[in-house]
Design a protein that fits this description.
alpha/beta; Oligo-1,6-glucosidase, domain 2
């Protein structure tokens, strides 16, 4: 991935389609964005694109492959590959329903009796890691009228696949290989990869050595096309640390959003500083995504009392966010996430929001900014009340006219200037390509040293009110100091052209 700021957006959330999105980015964001994570643009029947019927086509509502490729010519493109499931309306699944064991795709799917011929024992069911308050399978009816329970981790339209079967390996080679070969795609995000490992007597989540072997297969496919992989795992931060040591992949820092909220709410940046000292460097940083704000990711980095404090403050500061939006009543997918825009989570405080973004951009790694966060968007309560889907509170769709108007807000102008600085100032090593690199980790997760994407210094004041990060590359140096007692963020720069000091 190119070391610069990347945007995350749906194909129809900044304009109506990929062509309008491309035009908007070229016209208004060319100096701010190096890349783009274009959320699923394939034909899909559910979950806003995450239930693909095929990877060979672009949904006609969004455009065509030429539109996607042209976008990838101007901005490094990240695309999604759903490792764990396909649509119940896909030709793979429908062929199996019609032909049963005679289907060439029969072994791609996971009937429960394939794993548990005598039924699921209560003790083994208790071990299985799920994020919905139901069994992780659904009944399906075959062409001959028979009914079987089939593994389904998420929504009923997302049928799990067995990527470890011979058929699954062939499917993976064909479909992931085809996507990697598409012109303009530089990174592929492996969505929900942790749920692919289904082995009796385990949590059915991120089991080793199976997950290691699976990633190695994916890397062997992607490397043929020069594509970087970005596994998506929402869980305890230790999973990211384990992933970071495996060659050929980037990882997410999903702990950063909650740690920053805790620092803003409490005025104490000590836990944040401790994490920045130990976290992997070959990472992608986010404050907001199309999902909620992760809570489970910081268990152990924040104490239970600190997490409870942060969650309570988030609901209070978020004003019109309601805890019910993160429950089954609003089809919440993940009980360990809170649905809220990051700007609303900080109470719409412009200075606090800019301080958080500055810290994200100075933290080692490649920063991504979600489209709602780009426009400092507030919670869309009207949308979530209409759809009854909790995550829609952070999924407002902007017409081009509305997006243009939002760019004129003072806080958005400040953010655009900050992104231009992050993309252009050479202390960050901007413009270089950062790929997954193997790092030898100690048993405690420690690293032997920092590479060019790391920081030169990182200090937290004794009381935790301030944090300072220094980035340097060659003759260039940039220092950020954030004071959480007043939400002030100042940057000092040094380079061949001299020194500069400015407030974010």
């Amino acid at each position: 991935m190119i070391n610069g700021v990347h945007l995350i957006t749906y194909p129809d959330s900044l304009g109506r389609n990929v062509s309008e999105l491309h035009s908007f980015m070229k016209r208004r964001l060319s100096n701010c964005m190096s890349g783009l994570h274009l959320l699923p643009f394939f034909p899909s029947v559910a979950d806003r694109g995450f239930a693909p019927t095929t990877y060979r086509e672009v949904d006609s509502a969004f455009g065509c492959w030429r539109d996607v490729e042209m976008l990838g010519n101007d901005f490094e493109l990240t695309a999604d590959f759903m490792m764990n499931h396909v649509s119940a309306q896909s030709t793979w699944f429908l062929d199996w329903l019609e032909k049963g064991k005679d289907s060439r795709w029969a072994d791609l799917f996971i009937p429960v009796d394939k794993l548990f011929p005598d039924g699921v024992p209560r003790d083994e069911r208790a071990l299985i890691y799920t994020r919905k308050p139901r069994d992780p399978w659904v009944p399906v009816t075959f062409g001959d009228g028979s009914v079987r329970n089939v593994w389904c981790t998420f929504f009923g339209e997302q049928i799990d696949v067995d990527v470890f079967s011979e058929t699954g390996m062939r499917w993976l080679e064909e479909e992931l290989g085809e996507l990697c070969a598409r012109r303009g795609i530089g990174t592929i995000r492996l969505d929900a990869i942790g749920y692919t490992t289904k082995k009796r007597g385990t949590r059915f989540f991120f089991e080793e050595p199976e997950i290691v072997d699976l990633l190695a297969r994916c890397v062997s496919i992607s490397e043929r096309h020069g594509v970087t992989l970005l596994p998506e795992v929402h869980e305890h931060f230790s999973y990211q640390e384990r992933l970071a040591g495996w060659a050929g992949v980037m990882i997410y820092d999903f702990a950063l959003p909650m740690l920053l909220l805790y620092a803003c709410f409490s005025g104490n940046a000590v836990p944040l500083g401790d994490w920045l000292l130990r976290r992997p460097e070959n990472c992608v940083t986010t404050l907001d995504t199309h999902d909620g704000i992760g809570v489970v990711d910081v268990a152990g980095l924040l104490s239970p009392k600190q997490i409870e404090f942060t969650v309570n403050e988030l609901y209070e500061k978020g004003s019109n966010v309601n805890s019910r939006y993160s429950t089954a009543a609003f089809e919440n997918l993940d009980i360990y996430q809170i649905n809220c825009t990051y700007y609303s989570a900080l109470g719409g405080n412009d200075d606090a929001y800019m301080a958080a973004r500055a810290l994200q951009f100075f933290a080692p790694g490649i920063p991504q900014v979600y489209y709602v966060g780009l426009l400092a968007g507030s919670n869309d309560v009207e949308l979530v009340q209409r759809t009854r889907h909790g995550r829609d509170i952070n999924r407002h769709g902007y017409s081009l006219e509305e997006a243009e108007a939002q760019l004129e807000r003072p806080v958005v102008k400040r953010l655009l200037r900050l992104m231009e600085f992050r993309n252009s100032f050479k202390a960050f090593g901007t413009g270089r390509t950062a790929v997954g690199a193997k790092v030898d980790l100690g048993t405690d997760g420690s690293k032997p040293g920092r590479d060019g994407r790391g920081f030169q210094e990182m200090n937290v004041s004794e009381g935790g009110e301030t944090i300072t990060i220094v980035r340097s590359w060659g003759d260039y140096r940039a220092s950020l100091r954030v004071d959480f007692s007043e939400f002030s963020a100042r940057i000092e720069t040094e380079g061949p052209a001299g020194r500069e000091n400015f407030r974010v």
